[in-house]
Design a protein that fits this description.
The chain has 408 residues and is of the alpha/beta class. It has helices at 41-55, 63-73, 80-101, 105-109, 128-140, 188-206, 222-232, 251-258, 276-280, 297-309, 324-336, 351-356, 382-385; strands at residues 3-10, 18-24, 29-33, 117-125, 145-150, 183-186, 211-215, 239-241, 263-265, 286-287, 313-314, 343-344, 362-364, 367-369, 397-400, 405-406. The chain has 13 helices and 16 strands. The strands form 3 sheets. Strands 4, 5, 7, 8, 9, 10, 11, 12, 13 and 14 form a 10-stranded mixed sheet that branches. Helix 7 packs parallel to helix 8. The chain is globular. It binds D-gluconic acid (GCO) and magnesium ion. D-gluconic acid binds next to loops. One of its GO terms (molecular function) is mannonate dehydratase activity. Belongs to the mandelate racemase/muconate lactonizing enzyme family. GalD subfamily. This is Starvation-sensing protein RspA.
Length: 408
Amino acid sequence: MKITGAKVFVGGPGKNYVTLKIMTDQGVYGLGDATLNNRETLPAKYLEDYLVPALIGMDPRNSEDIWQYLYRGAYFRRGPIAMAAFGAIDMALWDIKGKLANMPIYQLLGGKSREGAMVYAHATGADLEDLMESISYYLEQGYKAVRVQCGIPGMPSASYGVSETKGDVENYITDFSGIRPKVEIWDTDRYMRYMPGALAEIRARFGPDLKILHDVHHRLLPREAAEFAKAVEPVGLYWLEDPTPAEDQDALTLLRQHSTVPIAIGEVFNSIWDCNKLIEKELIDFIRVAVTYAGGITPVKRIVDLAGLHNVRTGFHGAPSHSPLSMAAQAQINAWAPNFGIQEYLVLGTPECDALFPSEHRLENGLFHVSDAPGLGVDFDEQEAERYRYKPGSHPIVRLEDGTLWNY
Ligand code: GCO
Ligand code: MG
């Protein structure tokens, strides 16, 4: 069996999804997602110029060897652009493998460990009352877990995860008005003074059962993060995410000395080498890598197994920039992983998105039910894809009030 060609598409409804389609001499094809939010053309170019030509003629069933070929073959290892490109190829090869076996990928991993995988949504509010409304909306939809972010009184601009438009959970990350980033202003002191009380009010309003998550988005210094984690301990968070910049792994030792709040980290990691020490030292409770920019199902399965040895659970990244293909790849792992925790999931199911990526996966009562279709269980309509083009966009950047650049 041989790979005969591959195509890369960039575009989608309100997003720049990077979709890879690998064709074979047996008519079976595989699909993968290489979307790296706000840098989308780069994995696409890497695929087109370097990887697709090398794949032609290879046996697509040898997904492990092909992964090693891509990773070791680059010599300059890791990095989100390369790993997103490898990730798309790896997903597509598992898709082909599943179709050949006539099985969903979770069966090839070891079968189902649960009926449905718990997901969390993003609740957001310009202020705390707005946020309370947004949480109630998700509870009515049957969600058991929500990430909560709200505006901070006196903060010069919206803080992370808060949209300027009420109820808009889609577009606070990317501004498509151009490539030059908008500037947001951040004030750690105001955040530290306000947020623990706001989280306590949310707990008081919604009771003990709601799983509450909160994302600091890398903005605190190690000591501040330890103080914050200690302050929010009585809230009983499901997790506190990215309290410090993820590269500063020692920061978590200090935090652990002061708080037992569960910590989730890893959305910016792109290999097992970025998180093996954190997992082995048991400094985190949830690992947040994404199947896309951590290089695909093959390496992420290794991360999941390592995490399992240390009682670290999964909580894969699922920001709205992920296409239904990588969300499906994660759903396949989530169905199997003995140490599954939760999945971030922002309903992608607009009619336009469903037309571009038809699938039988379904969300019901806050649980993701993976489809039993062979492979990833998501198709891609090339004709629909003709409607979309790449649109330049950017994350905001963050500065302190005196102009100092800070972490977005
Ligand atoms: C999350 C993340 C995202 C990132 C985004 C960057 O927890 O979902 O923090 O919102 O900001 O993926 O592109
Ligand atoms: Mg995050």
